[in-house]
């Protein structure tokens, strides 16, 4: 069954805006697709037309503008934001936030703009960007309008975005030298898990005295909320234990959480106290980085490349019931696929091309078994629309073999018996091979980060880790 009817790949922003004007409620912008594809599969959203903007040049820029604001384009991925020197130096909480989203493969496709548009209170970046007083620029054929992020989300999955509008810019002021901030996220595991509670804290200091404060919280109300009462307690004094404890208690009083499968309302309130306290204590101690790797040590699974080729020329349309081929390169071979226009990439690879090494696991971006390389970057093929492959280069686990010779990672997995049921193995191998391309001699922590987007149901992690280390040793 097709997930959509028509898939447009546009090569200019004007074309995207014009298509939105034409289709309105029937259309949806797709960039990373990491939220949208899941929503489509679960019938949470039912647009018949997708408008892919990933081939529009310039939409993935992060820069400091002449207006003194940091600007993020609508194609800026979580990985790009986390690994940006500008963001790490002048908006540390946002780098922390993006680094904690999903796993490496999901961060490589998922965008900050998409996180905002999905508009659930568990979406990490909304909390931090609200604390940073971000503003959004929405564009349609009628022109641009700029609105504060704090007004944009009106309820769970509800926003002020009109059907014919596209989010084209996210902007906020860089933190000043006297300002410090931190982001904290409670989740059941370190990766591949959405927040149970998240908190962003930004303080302004004059010496040890707090002169301004902002505390934003997610997963405790239908939208992200600020806590004026807690903020007021902090202003005018230093971060004493008493002030910290009082602010944490007031934050919990302001929370309006629900009970669900991820946690009870009582548990969330208790964790608000703990997380606000921990955030304030880390700012007092100057430990606000909280383990965030520096840019030159961050694992992205980009390998030696960062951007693939872009299409140029006229907008390309793929109809799910049409006969337009998806033309791309898979494992070094040019292919032309018909009948896959309404599918995700994993099903095109498996069903239409016979590359069954790529495994379909959760199909929600939570296991990594479907990992492939798209234009040189590790991504989740279960969340990537097949038409996105048009004009692109794809590598699957079968493509790691060159002239009959296994990749060093494949050899090491055999030598170390790093396989049990084997279902997750192709995804692990694809992530590990890209990691070693990026860091030929990765540290143990970098290996953990590189494999954090992959789950092993048989708990074979020790041998998997050793296999990656052994493959890296062959680079000596």
Core attributes:
alpha+beta, five-stranded antiparallel beta sheet, DNA polymerase, domain 1, 32% helix
Report on the architecture of this protein:
- There is one protein chain.
- With 476 residues, the protein is an alpha+beta fold.
- Among the domains are: 64-105 and 120-128 and 172-285, CO dehydrogenase flavoprotein, C-terminal domain (Enolase-like, domain 1); 408-473, DNA polymerase, domain 1 (Orthogonal Bundle).
- The chain is 32% helix and 20% strand.
- It contains 17 helices and 20 strands.
- The chain has a 5-stranded antiparallel sheet.
- A hairpin with a 5-residue loop joins strand 4 and strand 5 (70-72).
- The longest helix has 21 residues, at 265-285.
- The radius of gyration is 23 Å and the shape is globular.
- The mean pLDDT is 96.
Question: Brief overview, please?
Answer:
A hairpin with a 6-residue loop joins strand 13 and strand 14. The protein is an alpha+beta fold and 476 residues long. The protein contains 17 helices and 20 strands.
């Amino acid at each position: 069954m097709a997930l959509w009817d028509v898939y447009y790949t546009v090569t200019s922003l004007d074309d995207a805006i014009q298509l939105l004007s034409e289709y309105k409620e029937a259309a949806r912008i797709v960039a990373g697709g990491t939220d949208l594809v899941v929503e489509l599969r679960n019938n949470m959203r039912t647009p018949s037309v997708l408008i892919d903007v990933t081939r529009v040049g310039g939409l993935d820029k992060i820069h400091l503008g002449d207006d003194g604001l940091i600007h993020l384009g609508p194609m800026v991925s979580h990985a790009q934001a986390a690994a940006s020197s500008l963001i790490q130096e002048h908006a540390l909480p946002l780098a922390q936030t993006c680094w904690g989203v999903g796993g490496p493969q999901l961060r490589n496709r998922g965008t900050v703009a998409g996180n905002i548009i999905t508009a659930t209170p568990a979406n990490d970046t909304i909390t931090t960007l609200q604390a940073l007083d971000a503003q959004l620029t929405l564009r349609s054929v009628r022109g641009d309008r700029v609105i504060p992020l704090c007004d944009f989300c009106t309820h769970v999955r509800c926003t002020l975005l009109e059907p014919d509008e596209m989010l084209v810019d996210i902007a906020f002021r860089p933190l000043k030298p006297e300002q410090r901030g931190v982001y904290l996220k409670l989740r059941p595991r370190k990766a591949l898990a959405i927040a149970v509670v998240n908190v962003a804290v930004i303080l302004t200091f004059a010496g040890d005295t707090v002169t301004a404060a902002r505390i934003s919280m997610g997963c405790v109300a239908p939208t992200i909320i600020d806590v004026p009462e807690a903020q007021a307690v902090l202003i005018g004094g230093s971060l004493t234990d008493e002030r910290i404890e009082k602010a944490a208690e007031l934050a919990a009083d302001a929370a309006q959480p629900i009970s669900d499968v991820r946690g009870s309302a009582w548990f969330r309130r208790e964790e608000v106290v703990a997380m606000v306290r921990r955030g304030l204590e880390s700012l007092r101690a100057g430990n606000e980085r909280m383990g965030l790797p520096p840019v030159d040590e961050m694992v992205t699974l980009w390998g030696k490349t960062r951007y693939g080729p872009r299409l140029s020329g006229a907008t390309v349309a793929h109809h799910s019931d049409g006969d337009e081929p998806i033309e791309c390169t898979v494992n070094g071979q040019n292919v032309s696929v018909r009948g896959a226009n309404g599918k995700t990439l994993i099903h095109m690879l498996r069903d239409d091309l016979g590359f069954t090494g790529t495994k379909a696991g959760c199909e929600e971006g939570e296991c990594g078994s479907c990992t492939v390389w798209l234009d040189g970057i590790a991504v989740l093929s279960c969340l990537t629309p097949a038409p996105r492959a048009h004009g692109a280069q794809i590598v699957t686990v079968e493509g790691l073999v060159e002239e009959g010779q296994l990749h060093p990672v494949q050899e090491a997995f055999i030598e170390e018996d790093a396989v049990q049921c084997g279902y997750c193995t192709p995804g692990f191998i694809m992530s590990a091979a890209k990691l070693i391309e990026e860091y030929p001699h990765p540290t143990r922590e970098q290996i953990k980060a590189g494999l954090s987007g992959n789950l092993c149901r048989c708990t074979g992690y020790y041998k998997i880790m050793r296999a990656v280390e052994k493959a890296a040793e062959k680079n000596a």
